[in-house]
Write a structure and sequence with these properties.
The chain is mainly alpha-helical. The protein has two domains: 170 residues, Tyrosine recombinase, N-terminal domain (DNA polymerase, domain 1); 197 residues, hpI Integrase, Chain A. The protein is built from 16 helices and seven strands. The strands form three sheets. It has a three-stranded antiparallel β-sheet with strand order 5-6-7. Strands 1-4 form a two-stranded parallel ribbon. Strands 2-3 form a two-stranded antiparallel ribbon. 27% of the residues are buried.
């Protein structure tokens, strides 16, 4: 008997702009009337998250997987799914078939002869490797795919939110995710807080000095130098530097209050606007950057000049991937200088760093000498407990108390030494 094979799915939803404009891609021909209803419910649900690119992407990924599994594996419409089905879906996500796993992120849709078609190379799951492994020439292997505990939590949270939405829209009578009583079977918990990934003092010193050297030698690197200052000095997330449909960072978002103190306005996670206090060093970096652009030393009230602009047309930078590539270029140059100066271990560790490590590093360094609540508000943390994770005094004390503990009792060690005399 021939073994049953699961069909390879195709993408269902394009980007935020296409969904908002009512564009619908060519859907799979096998879709039933129930599946089409599921699709339109999902589309309306995703549109409610168009205010945040990152949130939209996360919800699109999970909802798309759910629909594809329901139609192609369970052979069911959403309204008929049960608790047992969702448990099977979670297990499926943890161990998807190799045919559903890609080795790189690709465009979901491609243009061909005036039509928008599903990219045949796209897959709902993508195996990833670390930056270090990539630099060492390692090739992603679908057999090594793993769904992290954090990713499993996202599956539970997003699908549960979707089912609650369906209930409100009369597309569902129950939430099968809420009926799962023992989610711990799928989610591995850790007893202690995971360490914050950040740069060492030496690594950060080399990175920022590298940016300064490059900017001094070539004015086109002044933007890179300012970027590094902003990511570290104001704890910005990469999404807070890039322009999006909800917010475009502008020079005028640096502003002075009546006490002559400078602040920077940004919009972060959860579409929350906050004010970040600007240090003298950050203000000096802003002056240098603006003068390199031929602007006045400091911005005027309400100035709309993009904070980060494309060098070709002056439009705001929208691509977070482009910003990552700029920062990575600076990291790579810093790594080369560390190696040249004999700091091999530091260079090896810096190879794993990402842009977000700069935010972590800035917070970690500042929380040592600034009031925690001040760092909390500048970082946009929802609670002081999040900021407290950056305080490693207890971790240092914990390690110090363990450093000298014995494995073999001292008496036996002494006796062993006598026996060898």
């Amino acid at each position: 008997m021939a073994k049953h094979t699961i069909a390879i799915p195709q993408p269902l939803f394009d980007n935020i702009q296409s969904l908002a404009q009512g564009q619908v891609p060519l859907l799979p021909t096998h879709m039933t009337s129930d599946a089409i209803a599921d699709y339109h419910h999902a589309r309306q649900f995703l549109l409610s998250y168009r205010g945040s690119q990152a949130t939209f992407n996360a919800y699109r990924r999970e909802i798309e997987r759910l629909l594809q599994w329901s139609w192609l594996v369970a052979k069911k419409s959403l309204s008929t799914l049960t608790r047992v089905d969702i448990e099977a879906f979670i297990t499926f996500c943890q161990h998807p078939p190799l045919a559903w796993i890609g080795t790189q992120n690709v465009l979901r849709f491609i243009e061909h002869e005036g039509k928008t078609l599903a990219n045949p190379d796209w897959r709902p799951f993508v195996v990833s490797i670390s930056k270090v492994e990539h630099q060492q020439g390692r090739i992603p292997d679908p057999k090594q795919y793993q769904l992290s505990p954090k990713a499993v939590q996202a599956v539970f949270a997003i699908t549960s939110s979707f089912f609650n939405y369906l209930i409100q829209e009369n597309g569902m009578t129950h939430n099968p995710v809420a009926q799962i009583r023992q989610k711990s079977r799928f989610i591995r918990k850790t007893q202690t807080t995971q360490p914050i990934r950040r740069l060492s003092e030496l690594q950060w010193g080399y990175v920022i000095e590298t940016a300064l050297i490059k900017a001094t030698q070539d004015a086109s690197y002044e933007r890179t130098l300012f970027m590094m200052h902003a990511l570290y000095g104001m704890y910005l997330r990469i999404s807070e530097l890039a322009s999006s449909i909800r917010w475009t960072p502008q020079m005028g978002h640096f502003h002075k209050d009546r006490d002559a103190h400078w602040w920077f306005t940004t919009v972060g996670k959860g579409n929350k606007q906050r004010q970040i206090s600007v240090s003298d060093a950050m203000l000096a970096a802003l002056r240098r950057y603006r003068l390199s652009l031929g602007l006045t030393a400091l911005p005027s009230v309400g100035e709309t000049t993009p904070l980060l602009a494309n060098s070709k047309d002056g439009s705001p930078i929208r691509s977070t991937r482009y910003i990552r590539s700029i920062v990575q270029d600076c990291f790579d140059a810093g790594i080369a200088r560390l190696r040249a100066d004999g700091h091999e271990d530091e260079a090896d560790q810096l190879m794993a760093a990402t842009v977000h490590w700069l935010r972590h590093t800035g917070i970690s360094d500042d929380v040592q000498h600034r009031p925690r609540e001040h760092v909390r508000d500048d970082a946009g943390h929802g609670s002081s407990a999040i900021t407290d994770r950056y305080v490693d005094v207890e971790m240092r004390a914990r390690h110090a108390s363990a450093k000298s503990k014995l494995i073999v009792p001292a008496f036996f060690e002494q006796q062993d030494e006598k026996d060898h005399v």
